[in-house]
Specification:
With 440 residues, this protein is α+β, with helices and mostly antiparallel strands. 19% of the residues lie in helices and 32% in strands. The chain is built from seven helices and 24 strands. The chain has a four-stranded antiparallel sheet with strand order 1-24-23-22, with no helix packed on it. It has a four-stranded antiparallel sheet with strand order 2-3-4-5, with no helix packed on it. Strands 6-7-8-9 form a four-stranded antiparallel sheet, with no helix packed on it.
Length: 440
Amino acid sequence: MMCAKSLPQHLVLSASLLLASIHLSLAAEDSSWARVGTLAKEARAAYKAGNSKLFLEKTREALELAPKSPTLLYNTACGYSLTGDVKAAASALERVLDLKLDPGIEADSDLAALRDSSEFPRLKARIAALHQVTGSAEVAFQIREPDYLPEGIAFDSRAGVFFVSSVRNRRVDVIRADGSSARFSQKVTGTPLAVLGMKADSKRRLLWAATAAVPQMKGYTKSDSGKTALLAFDLDDGKQKKRILPPDDGKEHSFNDVEASPEGEVYVSDSTGSGVFVLKPGQRVLETFVPPGVFVSPNGLALDTTRGVLYVSDYARGIFSVDVVTRDVSKLEAPVDAVLAGVDGLALFGADLIGIQNGVLPHRVLRISVDTAGMKVTRVEILEMNHPAFDEPTLGAVTGRDFYFIANSQWERYSEDGKVRKGALLRPPLVLKRSLEPSR
């Protein structure tokens, strides 16, 4: 990994998201975020030009505006190392480690001076400690197809069964209480796409699923690019009941996750379009809930009916709350020892959020406590980290006092052209179960 050139997926605010956010954030009210994006672009240009001093200067200026950004902290460390200040480089990396993130420093040539210094053994010991197993999750069930590439999971409380979505095989399967499985989704209208996030509406007997064309699905062609749809299946027979398309506005859309209210509203995040839509009961046309430009890459959704907010995990920026009535958007501020970017799946347990954070290393499952107003994070607890089965965990579902989640989607074992990477070994996907204690 080379600093600011191409940042690894496990460092939050990756270069691609950070630089893409420049254009998105200009439309938002957060001018400081736009400034961060501009400075990051200037720092990257300085790095490519070999101007380490200017690279460090621009990165430090961006860091002043986003002091908890792991990427900016890491790049600052690289800048210091490249300019010969190894103590300052070590100090910046200590701040990354304080967030319980592995910055991946052992193979970066930009940190060669730091690795040759007396500062390095201390950092190496702290990184090793980060990789100890945390948590007590157990295997709930296994999917027999190694190339299944699971993403979403939902639970039907009336029938007592789970549903798991396959990106690779473009379908949904039902998992019964005895662990047996069967194909669920039947007679899909139009070309079946990769199935991502899902939500079961047990009352109305509907399973809602976000679907989108991605290269990792079998049979993908360039003509599939840009296709996405929100589907509803009958929970009892698997037949498709509804197919809702995005607005025909000439823009690219890609539905990602789904949430449903007790009254029947359905929310869907649009990661590529950067907005969130809502489908009102009885309607067949999506309504904009949060317009594009507020988020960079909205992923997981969790509805808190008590507080009257929809929580949205923006993969690049963290977790936000949206008032379901006024639709006002507020960013949840995290404690000083935690970072909330890189969260994929999001679920509600009591008054807390359960988040699956696969945008950092080590991957982890978080319990996020929020104040009574739903505006500020008061505590972040790591429930699971370094589980032996982890290979990019994705989404999960709460049922009772248990959290079931996809442990090993294996996304990274596929290349951008959709093929399994050379030498990659696929393993049968696992769903893990983690017991949850009541809110404190």
